[in-house]
Design a protein that fits this description.
Length: 861
């Protein structure tokens, strides 16, 4: 069939089962089936094409089937002819451009929206007051899979087609909800399907038992830091492939992941969602993750690796949200600045440009990008603007799109165009650098920066208003072209995942796929591979099954989350009693125990801001600690690098130097200490769940063995402790010797802390881990550890010389004990004299690749 269809006449054939549409090029006829295929019990019709895709549509949508050259097509816009965008034989770009050209400004504005968080069903709570026929869900009589009033409104009135799904009651409910959504939007306008999405949802429930051969609600995997701790990209790619199949079975076709920020700032709250602090490990993991999510194979592939098992991966957060000043997070005004005191911006791009944008698979690049909330302070070398990343034309257009050739979707993080809260610690809008502008002006600035989509925005009005601003500034043709450019990008991700042909799910198939036994097994095996053995004095581990153990209660402090009131503090069993009995005998009397196992969590060191400090006359800025006990920030910066926000006009310096803090879970340390005393010399095993680096100095001496985990089931821990499985995980970051080295490190430089060395002489550096034989040294450590070798400092007669064994590496140094920034004045070029008492710190760096660990020398002669 020719690609261009000429005007036609409608001819009704009496007594026939079709209506013939004639007058097309080459004698091709378009037939509308007069008697449409039968539907299943839910009203979904499945039409099979020989040598073509199966088509799914709902009888409630009004869509009919066209037949052309013996093939079937969906008449999505109900005009009785086969439009290019309806023709699955054409390329994705041809279809997307055709549809974009047909859409109104209002419809493109709807495509640019990305909904706020949607729970299925929507329960009353802090996330929003959703209703069903005007009533809260518990009082509505609605089914869990029904659409809320608000969902119907933004899907139809605002033309929204990208929905962020959070919790779901069950796979069956999620699948039915998806079908309900797709049936609704299929009958509206051009029949554009919904592209539903999810934040990561494969974390573990620590108390749930894994049983070989049994299924579950969804496969459970370690946290992303745990995936990094495997140092095995193949595990991550397997995760991506399995998670994608489960996502598609839930009706999810976009993953708001992976989070590939470089975890160079150890205090940052979101480091647990990263692949750690090393740019090369992060790049390999990012590539594997996206390849796994986006690649379909066999009969599930449509073209170019894309297909019915593909999930669009939205890599985040460009250009890296890791170097938050003081470790504070940009969800709040107090954490709006990312800083680069080490001039190490290039390494924060590695996981993006050499990872998720340079795939091994056929899909080539991550299909979407999310910038972080942060102001990447001082990084806009062209326009000299310090605004949130989504507002930066330099970061989005000049760097991402032009320099690195990216033409996929760029979507803001959630609520960057909304108004901020009344104080820096209120969770609200995050319009950093644009706080004094209107909502519509912020949308316009984002569009002109080169962004396509607005996260967390359900209403099209401000987008349309931004369009009119553009018409005034640049004329209608310019803005129409600008809108169509974004529309094409957004539509590509819907076309290539097959949603235009069949967005519907078979409920029973979804139930079988999500949490199927082999997926559960793969996730559990990944958990085992992620566990890191840090200490094993006198080979205390493995601990033989059947031994008698003492487990003190585990403490959970009161913690303030993003939403709702703080959690309540509590003591509870560290491990389910029935599970524990399968491994060991349990006693409440330490005197009767062969050993003790103490479960603790990373020090809960605060957010870096405390309203109580404001009430007492301070600025509100306080330290974030990585130790349990009291800490005073005597070595913090005298003055912050960045400061300023309209809601705190008098605060021009965010330093917290000299202020003190104690971790909220100091009780964890006290539990270790009291257990050590109670065991009277018998072994104490500490199991610590790490969400960020920690200072082990406070508790290492009281532990005969230390096992670190990153969000795994307790059963996986017990399998390691008992020797059922051997530990093989490696640290994805450094563990600091003390808080002084944390304060002196630069937020943007990885590998720049003095690491802790334990009583057995082992240093807890990046890539450290043990198995039953001792310190692990294998292909993984050879590949990733010391990728850039530490420089050698030689001192003779007061003259210092330096060298690096890594080809192409430059050495940067200081003589005052500060961390050397990667700037010309710190670059080593020739031997130099050094004064007595000088503290030399040096780091080797290969630009755009990685940097070494830091070496230190103190001149005493």
């Amino acid at each position: 069939m020719k690609k261009n269809l000429k005007p036609f006449a409608v001819v009704c054939l009496a007594g026939a089962s079709t209506i013939l549409l004639a007058g097309m090029t080459g004698g091709t006829n378009v037939n509308i089936l007069n008697k449409q295929p039968g539907a299943d019990s839910s009203g979904i019709v499945l039409v099979k094409n020989t040598n073509g895709p199966a088509l799914g549509y709902s009888t409630t949508s009004g869509v009919k089937i066209l037949t052309v050259d013996g093939f079937s097509f969906k008449d999505l816009n109900k005009n009785g002819k086969l439009d290019k965008y309806e023709d699955w034989r054409l390329t994705v770009d041809e279809r997307a451009k055709d549809l974009a050209s047909k859409l109104s400004v209002e419809q493109i504005a709807g495509l640019m929206l990305y909904s706020a968080h949607q729970a299925i069903p929507a329960m009353p709570g802090p996330m929003g007051a959703a209703t069903y026929n005007g009533k809260p869900f518990p009082q509505s009589g609605a089914k869990a899979s029904d659409l809320t009033d608000q969902q119907k409104a933004f899907l139809i009135n605002d033309n929204l087609r990208h929905v962020l799904v959070t919790s779901v009651q069950s796979p069956a409910v999620a699948a039915q909800w998806n079908n309900n959504v797709q049936a609704l939007v299929e009958g509206s306008g051009f029949g554009i399907p919904a592209n539903n999405s999810s934040d990561p949802r494969h974390g573990t429930n620590s108390g749930v038992e894994y049983t070989a051969g049994a299924g579950g609600k969804i496969s459970q995997w370690p946290d992303q830091l745990g995936l990094a701790a495997t140092f095995d990209p193949a595990v991550v790619q397997q995760f991506g492939s399995i998670a994608a199949q489960e996502y598609r079975a839930l009706g999810i076709s976009t993953a708001l992941s992976p989070q590939i920020d470089l975890g160079s700032e150890p205090r940052w709250a979101r480091i647990n969602g990263t692949f750690g602090e090393d740019p090369q490990l992060a790049a390999d993991m990012a590539r594997a993750y996206v390849d796994g999510f986006q690649t379909s194979t066999g009969d599930r592939e449509i073209k170019g690796g894309w297909g019915y098992n593909s999930v669009n991966a939205m890599m985040k957060h460009w250009p890296g949200g890791g170097p938050e000043e003081g470790g504070r997070d940009a969800h709040f005004a107090y954490g709006k600045f990312a800083v680069y005191p080490g001039n190490n911006f290039d390494e924060h791009l590695v996981s993006f440009v050499d990872g998720a944008l340079k795939l091994s698979g056929s899909t080539k690049m991550a299909s979407a990008v999310m910038p972080y909330y942060t102001i990447s302070y001082g990084r806009d070398i062209k326009n000299k603007e310090d605004r949130g990343n989504s507002y930066s034309k330099y970061l989005i257009t000049d760097l991402l799109r032009t320099k690195y050739g990216y033409d996929g979707v760029v979507c803001t993080d959630w609520l960057v165009t909304a108004d901020e809260g009344k104080t820096p610690d209120v969770f609200a809008g995050k319009s950093w650098g644009m706080e004094d502008k209107t909502v519509a002006e912020r949308h316009y600035k984002v569009l002109m920066a080169g962004v396509d989509q607005f996260g967390g925005n359900n209403v099209a009005g401000p987008v349309i208003e931004a369009y009119q601003m553009g018409v005034k500034d640049h004329g209608e043709p310019f803005m129409r072209a600008r809108f169509e450019l974004s529309a094409v990008r957004l539509l590509r991700n819907i076309f290539r995942t097959g949603l235009f042909e069949n967005p519907y799910l078979d409920i029973e198939t979804s139930k079988q796929i999500v949490g199927k036994p082999e997926f559960m097994t793969a996730g559990y095996n990944a958990q085992l591979k992620s566990v890191v053995l840090l200490k094993n004095t006198a080979n205390v581990l493995p601990l033989q099954k059947g031994k008698t153990v003492y487990l003190p209660k585990k403490y959970s402090p009161s913690v303030k989350g993003f939403f709702g009131p703080p959690s309540k503090e509590k003591f509870e069993d560290a491990v389910n009693a029935e599970l524990l009995k399968k491994y060991y005998n349990v006693t409440d009397d330490p005197a009767k125990a062969d050993c003790a196992i103490v479960f603790v969590s990373s020090p809960s060191g605060g957010a870096g801001y405390d309203s109580e400090d404001v009430k007492s006359g301070g600025t509100g800025y306080v330290p974030i600690t990585l130790q349990y006990g009291p800490y005073t920030a005597t070595d913090a910066r005298e003055h912050s690098i960045a400061a300023g926000d309209p809601v705190e006009p008098t605060v021009t310096d965010r330093t917290y130097k000299g202020k003190s803090i104690t971790a909220a879970n100091l009780t964890d340390l006290k539990t270790i200490q009291s257990t050590k005393a109670a065991m009277n010399g018998k072994p104490v095993i500490v199991v610590i769940t790490l969400t960020k680096p920690a200072v082990p100095a406070e508790f290492e001496k009281d532990a005969n063995a230390i096992v670190a985990s990153f969000g795994v089931q307790n059963q996986a821990i017990l399998d390691i402790l008992s020797g059922t499985a051997e530990p093989s995980g490696l640290l994805p970051f450094q563990m600091p010797a003390n808080m002084q080295t944390v304060e002196l490190q630069d937020e943007d430089i990885p590998h720049d802390m003095q690491c802790y060395t334990d009583a057995d002489g082992h240093t807890y550096d990046f890539g450290f881990g043990m198995n039953w034989k001792g310190v692990i040294q294998d292909a993984r450590t050879r590949h990733y550890v010391n990728r850039v070798i530490e420089p050698i400092i030689s001192v003779k007669g007061g003259t210092v010389s330096m060298s690096s064994a890594t080809n192409g590496a430059k050495i940067y140094y200081t003589t005052d004990g500060s961390t050397p920034a990667f700037v010309k004045e710190n670059e080593y070029s020739k031997p130099f004299k050094v004064a007595k008492g000088s503290v030399i710190k040096a780091i080797a760096k290969v630009y755009g690749v990685d940097n070494s660990g830091m070496v230190m020398y103190k001149e005493t002669k």
